[in-house]
Amino acid sequence: MKIDAIEEAPPGAFHRKLLIACCGGPLLDGYLLSIVGVALTDMTRDLALSGSTAALIGVAAIVGMFFGGLLIGPLTDVIGRRAMYTIDLAVLLGASAASVVTTEPWQIIALRFVIGFAIGADYPIATALLTEWSPRRQRGRALGWVIMAWYLGALAAYLVGYLIAVAIPAGGWRWMLASSAVLSVIVLVLRHGTPESPRWLIERGRIDEARELIRSVLGKDVGREQLLAARTTGIRHGSVRALFRGIYLRRLLFVSLFYTCQVIPMWAIYIFGPKLLGAFGFDEVTVGTVGSALVSLLFLAGCVPAMRLLETVGRRPMITWSFALMAVPLLVLGLWQDAPVVVVLGCFSAYAFFAGAPGILEWLYPNELFPTSIRATAVGLVVALSKIGAAVGTYLVPTSLEHFGVSGTMCAGAAITVVGLVACLAWAEETRGRTLEDASLDASDSAASGPDSGTGTGTGTGPGTGPDSGTGKDRPSADPVR
User: Fold this and answer.
1) Neighbouring C-beta atoms of residue 192, cutoff 10 Å
2) Of the segments 34-43, 361-370, 468-477, which one has the largest average pLDDT value?
């Protein structure tokens, strides 16, 4: 069960343009969440913000992302990827530009919420569209660039924020917040003319439109029978209920759990790097800041080898070994509070580097494990749940440092990571080299697909889990939800 023209297509100019356009959302996410931290210092002084108001401004975008992912994911499965793909960027552009004329804290909070809503909405839209057009051997690499774009956006925010602060000492924070409008315009231009997902058209019964789209974009003729065989039946488009049944419930629990266990320690290290390093006796302003910059670069660097290894070694081995390796440096820091500088920086750097594969799989797994009819719904729900983890990581670290010290805080991070490891050992599936249709197939229907369909669950072992599995003869569409 596959669409050869898409799954086996050689990467070309269309794929590169689509990749760049889809990475625009994560780039803006990293930029927006980081630029507000740079702007808050001057903003607090100019507007005489209280601590609670400053916290609301900082968290407003995260809250907005929660609702954006939760609400827009199902809508994207119902009305299509292409329409939402442009609307959310237009909203983001308008809200960013309006930031330059804000005068009251409530206005900033409201705009940050709207911006977060648009960014949260973009993840299920853009990643679903990118996944559904990507050749099977390139999906891991394509989704790897999504998380790398986030880190690049964060680094760009620090640079732009610094330059604006130097150029505009008074009121520069408004221009910092509004600067994302420039990025929004660039991404909006890049997204112009992006075609709809042929897989979504197939799910809606628009077979002839899908055939014509594949022919015009990839230059390949596809028979109606092949497209009909790839169609999912038995799941209502955008159905949240379908995510809470059978294997899809287990997959939702798996992705949400490992995502949360990844994001809490990662977010704490990323945001509170100087504070954590200061707790180890470092100078928080100088050494801590430089160390945090190094760790940030290693979060980015860890994605580079992971993109290749996910396609050669596989998803399941990479995520289980990554979680195991991430737990070790956190445990060392928790048990060895008086460790020398080299050990402390080495442990933080090792954690950041090993986080590369799970960071990519945060987006790759939910797009591969759920069928087209509920793919964006699943990604949106996972995004929403991840923001709860981000909020936990943001707010509990200072409290934990105050009450339990750096040793207890790092041990807690190691324990959370071990929980993620257990979830991966129990539930991680191998989807490397499989078509989207086979990877998302309900394993209870494996009998209908044959013994070599590669639809095994849990361990990902047995027939059909190799790099070329799921590429045999086309099979009739199964009904994943009875």
Assistant:
1) 8
2) 361-370
Exposure string of 271-307, with b = 16+ CB inside 10 Å and e = fewer, is bbbbbbbbbbebebeebbbbbbeebbebbbbbbeebb
Please determine, looking at this structure, whether the domain spanning 1-194 carries the CATH number 1.10.10.10: no
Measured between alpha carbons, how far is 358 from 295 in angstroms, rounded to an integer? 16
Provide the sign of the torsion angle of the four alpha carbons 477, 212, 217, 88, taken in this order. negative
Query: pLDDT digit string (tens) for 251-287?
Result: 999 999 999 898 888 877 766 565 566 666 655 445 5
* SS3 state of residue 48: coil
For 389, counting Cβ atoms within 10 Å of its Cβ (0-12 exposed, 13-18 middle, 19+ buried), the class is buried
CA distance 387 to 444: 32
Q: What is the pTM of this model?
A: 0.79
Q: Is-same-fold flag (1-194; 239-461)?
A: yes
Cα–Cα distance list, 433 to 42, 244, 457, 463 (Å): 50, 27, 15, 13
- Is the CATH code 1.10.10.10 the one for domain 239-461? no
Which sequence spans correspond to the domains of the chain? 1-194, 239-461
pLDDT in tens, 22-81: 998 889 888 887 788 778 778 888 888 887 787 788 778 888 888 988 888 888 888 888
